[in-house]
């Protein structure tokens, strides 16, 4: 995608040639240095954003082990409602709560450019830090529900917003690994949360509060303080970066314009672009993949401490044993995304991760020993967590221009969190530790995700071939005497359907 400062004059081909000349004159070492500077100044901040987001959302699992459910006298049904409320509406006796999380994801992506990511994202982090802290002061089920509702409302825009934001700094072939850098913090947050919760368990009774209260208070305060700091660290665009030199800014911008020949000033918001995204076959397929992946991902994120606990380990040992699977997930997530970018391929690395998850679920269902069952969690977490950056990059890579991409990414995470809603109802304590029906569902979902990935790759391959065959026919409605290829109008209106745009497989 071109930047806001790009000129709208001239055809996309002419513009591409100018960019090519500029970049060909730049030493490759300087290009690598510019990308490395982004990796050191943009990606770490986004990683912290998502680490805190996932930590603050999933720490309710650690709080449950530390006594939350018992102290608030909640049933399993009420606990599931408390978790579900973060993602969507729940019926609570006569009280109906609106849809907080999933309904904020698409609109927030559509207004991100207007408000500015440098304002919107730090504001989100600061406010949710306050809400997480307040969770530590709740004294009943109703208070917890209220906090979880507002937490979902505020946190909803974060993941899709980060993916959209990074797509404005990195080329398509670099995106999967950068998404992995920040998303791997989700698995890292699971490991960190376990260690932190184990330490905070020793604060039971401090200040007259239970250990689970301190989990929320301390983690929430940290998020709040970090949110305030990031108002000074997050640039709106590459040209606004305080860390890049002028030459590096130009390098980054020109690389993006070569990678995505779309002219931003012509890419105005319209519901037509939103509908075009929602009707794209590859977006629909990824939507289904994301739903099933979300059911697996959030089930593990929210209930893994409870699963380990029910295998027969003590609460403190459970917190520590929860670290291992998430640490393994961190490594596999990075490796999977690295090879996905290196190979410029999404399908094969995605299938490899799904094969690991399949092995994990199969082992867990077939094992009768608690140590083997615990070991299989490493495969389950690694495989499922490893899929997410690859899927997110695949969706972003194949959706253009900006507002179509913003919609596609938002819809993808609506699907993910809709799957998360399903997972919150699939782990009742009475069915543990095997949760046989749930894990059969998870295994089935994993296999179907693999099938859909193959179908999507085949469909995109055929679409690329069709573009080659029918290039003139596709561009004919946009052709003019001075621009036989339709110029910028063709790029903006056709978006990823432009015959010169190659879908990533």
Give the gist of this structure.
Helix content is 72%, strand content 1%.
Structural features, described:
With 505 residues, the chain is an all-alpha fold. It has 2 domains: 25-260, Growth Hormone, Chain: A (Up-down Bundle); 269-504, MFS general substrate transporter like domains (Growth Hormone, Chain: A, Up-down Bundle). 72% of the residues lie in helices and 1% in strands. The chain has 22 helices and 2 strands. The chain has a two-stranded antiparallel sheet with strand order 1-2. Helix 6 (102-115) packs across helix 9 (158-166) and helix 17 (347-366) packs antiparallel against helix 20 (436-469). It is globular. The model is unreliable at 1-19 and 88-99 (pLDDT under 50).
How would you describe this structure in keywords?
505 residues; mainly alpha; Growth Hormone, Chain: A; 2 domains; two-stranded antiparallel ribbon; 22 helices; disordered N terminus; MFS_trans_sf; transport
Overall shape: globular
Helicity level, as a percent range?
A: over 70%
What is the percentage of strand-forming residues?
under 5%
Task: Just give the CATH class of the largest domain.
Answer: Mainly Alpha
What structural class do the secondary elements suggest? Answer: mainly alpha
DSSP E strands, number = 2
The average pLDDT score comes to 84
What is the CATH topology classification name of the largest domain?
Answer: Growth Hormone, Chain: A
> What is the succession of H and E elements?
HHHHHEEHHHHHHHHHHHHHHHHH
Spatial gap, N to C terminus: 20 Å
The CATH architecture designation of the largest domain is Up-down Bundle
Return Rg in Å: 23 Å
Q: Strand sequence of the main sheet, in spatial order? A: 1-2
Please name the fourth-level CATH homologous superfamily of the largest domain: MFS general substrate transporter like domains
**Biggest sheet statistics:** 2 strands, antiparallel
- Number of helical regions: 22
Low-confidence stretches at least 5 residues in length (pLDDT < 50)? 1-19, 88-99
Number of individual domains: 2
């Amino acid at each position: 995608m071109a930047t806001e400062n790009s000129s709208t004059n001239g055809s996309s081909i002419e513009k591409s040639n100018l960019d090519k000349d500029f970049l060909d004159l730049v030493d490759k070492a300087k290009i690598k240095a510019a990308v490395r500077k982004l990796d050191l100044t943009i990606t770490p901040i986004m990683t912290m954003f998502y680490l805190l987001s996932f930590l603050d959302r999933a720490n309710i699992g650690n709080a449950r082990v530390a006594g939350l459910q018992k102290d608030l006298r909640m049933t399993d049904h009420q606990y599931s409602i408390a978790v579900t409320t973060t993602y969507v509406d729940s019926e609570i006796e006569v009280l109906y709560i609106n849809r907080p999380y999933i309904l904020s994801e698409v609109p927030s992506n559509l207004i991100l450019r207007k408000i500015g990511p440098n304002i919107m994202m730090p504001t989100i982090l600061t406010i949710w830090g306050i809400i997480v802290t307040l969770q530590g002061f709740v004294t009943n089920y109703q208070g917890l529900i209220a906090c979880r509702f507002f937490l979902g409302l505020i946190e909803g825009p974060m993941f899709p917003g980060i993916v959209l934001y990074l797509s404005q700094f990195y080329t398509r072939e670099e995106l999967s690994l950068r998404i992995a850098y920040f998303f791997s913090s989700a698995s890292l947050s699971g490991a960190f949360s376990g260690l932190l919760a184990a330490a905070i368990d020793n604060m039971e009774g401090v200040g007259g509060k239970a250990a689970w209260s301190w989990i929320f208070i301390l983690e929430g305060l940290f998020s709040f303080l970090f949110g305030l700091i990031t108002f000074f660290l997050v640039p709106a665009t590459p040209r606004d970066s305080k860390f890049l030199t002028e030459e590096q800014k130009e390098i980054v911008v020109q690389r993006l314009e070569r990678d995505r020949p779309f002219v931003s000033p012509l890419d105005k918001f319209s519901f037509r672009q939103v509908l075009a995204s929602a009707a794209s076959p590859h977006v629909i397929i990824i939507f289904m993949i994301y739903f099933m992946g979300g059911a697996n991902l959030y089930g593990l994120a929210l209930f893994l401490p409870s699963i380990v606990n029910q295998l027969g380990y003590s609460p403190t040992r459970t917190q520590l044993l929860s670290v291992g699977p998430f640490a393994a997930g961190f490594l596999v997530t990075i490796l999977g995304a690295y090879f996905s970018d290196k190979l410029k391929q999404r399908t094969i690395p995605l299938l490899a991760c799904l094969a690991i998850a399949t092995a994990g679920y199969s082992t867990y269902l077939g094992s009768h020993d608690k140590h083997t069952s615990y070991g299989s969690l490493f495969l389950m977490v690694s495989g499922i967590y490893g899929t997410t950056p690859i899927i997110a990059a695949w969706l972003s890579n194949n959706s253009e221009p900006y507002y179509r991409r913003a919609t596609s990414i938002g819809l993808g995470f609506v699907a993910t969190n809709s799957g998360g809603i399903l997972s919150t109802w699939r782990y009742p304590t009475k069915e543990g530790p095997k949760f046989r029906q749930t894990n059969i569902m998870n295994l089935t979902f994993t296999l179907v995700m693999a099938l859909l990935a193959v179908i999507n790759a085949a469909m995109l391959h055929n679409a690329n071939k069709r573009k080659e065959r029918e290039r003139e026919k596709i561009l004919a409605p946009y052709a003019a005497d001075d621009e036989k290829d339709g110029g910028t109008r063709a790029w903006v209106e056709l978006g990823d359907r432009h015959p010169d745009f190659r879908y990533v497989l």
